Amino acid sequence: MQYSFLGFSVKKIMEFGLGIKDLAVLRYFDDFRESGRMNYEIIEGEKYNDDEVSYKNYVRLSTEKDKGSASKCSSKTNILKDSSTIDTNLYKYIKEASEIISYLNLSLGTKYKEKNKGTLTSINKRINEGYNVDYFKSVISKKVKKWKCTKFEQYLNQQTLFGDKFEVYLNQNIIKEEKSNKGYVDYREPRKLRFNNFKGRDYDYDDLEKKLLGWE
Prior knowledge:
The protein has helices spanning about 10-15, 20-35, 50-60, 95-110, 115-130, 135-145, 160, 165-170, 205-210, and strands spanning about 5, 10, 40-45, 45-50. It is about 45% helix and about 5% strand. Among the domains are: about 5-70, no CATH class; about 90-170, no CATH class. The strands form two sheets. A two-stranded antiparallel ribbon has the order 1-2. It has a two-stranded antiparallel sheet with strand order 3-4. It has nine helices and four strands; from the N terminus they run ββααββααααααα. Strand 3 and strand 4 form a beta hairpin. Helix 4 (about 95-110) packs parallel to helix 6. It is mainly alpha-helical.
């Protein structure tokens, strides 16, 4: 779980309903305040920095009052933390994603990146649903066999294969299609008769006619 963002407690961010603009401004104020160059005022016995007071007034005048709730923030909220972090959840299954994308690229001759945000999001969802790397490889193999060199080849990508139809693709049975020669007749080959007890002729009509007419 991510515990901080831009140096602020995620729990407090959610509690106060702060937006990204609020956090960016607060980050600036906090860095400026730490520099020791910011003036302050005493209001009702509490010490406030001048810029902090001005920002509170700005929030009160903002039309997006529901989103801009930074006016609730002061030194008493303990919203600030010393450390910051990145979204580690996105890369939680990076090892599995790397193996899956490598298999996909090997099967298709492509160069998809395992660190693509959309790709990681799809893979993470499927893994959280209980599917492992072998399931991904199975889907890739099935759809490559089914769609390769067809009009559906354009759909052989991570968005399609690892999307909401993943379970459907996984449970599909691939039937090998055989080429049919219906409509084509090779007249050079003797045709098979429809009656098993009937013997076809093995003589030439021209020779038979000559014999019957006494020409031979």
